[in-house]
Amino acid sequence: MNLRQTLRSYFTFNRRERNGILILLGVILLLLVTLFIQEQRLLLPVSDFSAFDRMAAGLRAAEYKQTAAQKDSSAHESRLPTPAEAAGQRSLFHRQELFYFNPNNLPAADWIRLGLSPAQAQSIKNYEAKGGRFETKEDVRKMYVISPQLYNRIEAYIVIPQPEAQKTGPAPVVQTEKAKPRATVVELNSADTSALKSLPGVGSVFAKRILSYRNRLGGFHSAEQLLEVYGFDVERYEQVKNFVKTDPQFLSRIPLNTAAAAELRQHPYVTPNTATAIVSYRKLHGPFKTLEALQDVDLVNPELYRKLAPYLIL
């Protein structure tokens, strides 16, 4: 009898103890559910290499086509290359050089300078030898050996003189196109939209984008900063780089020792965190003695300092 009472004292629970056990079981269950959810969230995504495989396959196919085209051209020199082959050949023979030219009777060497291969240049000379002539820019575009990409690059440089019979009367369209050569160098920090539109490859849209970005920067200290303008790619920059310059006297400079964080972060090169770090460093260490001391700020690396320094003043 005493043994039974002893066992019952161990395995009998009052109402408070039963409630405590139920609460403990609920907490354990909640922890298990939480761990399960976190484990699902932490599962690493499966990497998809299909795009890379497609790109690699495309490169192999392009290389095979280029090799086959070169072998075929050696066996059939009289066959005209396709625009795609022409692009591959141009990359092998030379770099493209842009200049103003009259396509009629243009030496083969100058066609090669513009981006054609020797075989393509000879095809144009053969066309002229048979009586062919370029009356308009459209005639140049129709040449099979000139790809659409190449034509778009050289179109602005094509100058076809007006025939003698048409030189009387109002100024013809050809004269207008001939008057458009961008021989004058444009100063980027003082130019208006009209001056910017005179640059090769720059129309109304890019002229407005250049002015907008110039205002945000406080002026251009280098012509290469045009590459930071939205949509302004390397190909377009190659067209204009010889026709632009920058004058540092037009730059707007930020006083480094007095500018607030709000003023600093208005510049495109300065993030909010960098602006805060500069102001905090200045408060802790006092005014900057030199512009080079800005590199002591944690978030200012050498590349950022190189880009930002022309816009700062002590």
Distance between the termini: 97 Å
Q: Class by helix and strand content? A: mainly alpha
For this structure, the quaternary state is: single chain
SSE succession: HHHHHHHHHEHHHEEHHHE
Number of strands: 4
Shape: elongated
Low-confidence stretches: 75-79, 86-94, 171-183
Number of domains: 3
If you compute it from the alpha carbons, what radius of gyration comes out, rounded to the nearest whole angstrom?
35 Å
- SS summary, helix count: 15
Mean pLDDT score: 78
Residue fraction in strands = under 5%
Measured as a percent range, the helix fraction is 40-55%
Task: Give the strand order of the largest sheet, numbering strands 1, 2, ... along the chain.
Answer: 1-2
Largest β-sheet summary: 2 strands, parallel
Q: Which features characterize this protein?
A:
single chain, 314 residues, mainly alpha, DNA polymerase, domain 1, two-stranded parallel sheet, 4 strands, 52% helix, 3% strand
Report on this model:
- By secondary structure, the chain is an all-alpha fold.
- The protein folds into three domains: 72-175, no CATH class; 186-250, Photosystem II 12 kDa extrinsic protein (DNA polymerase, domain 1, Orthogonal Bundle); 254-313, AF1531-like domain (DNA polymerase, domain 1, Orthogonal Bundle).
- The chain is 52% helix and 3% strand.
- A two-stranded parallel sheet has the order 1-2.
- Helix 5 (108-114) crosses helix 6.
- The longest helix is centred in the N-terminal third of the chain and has 27 residues, at 15-41.
- The radius of gyration is 35 Å and the shape is elongated.
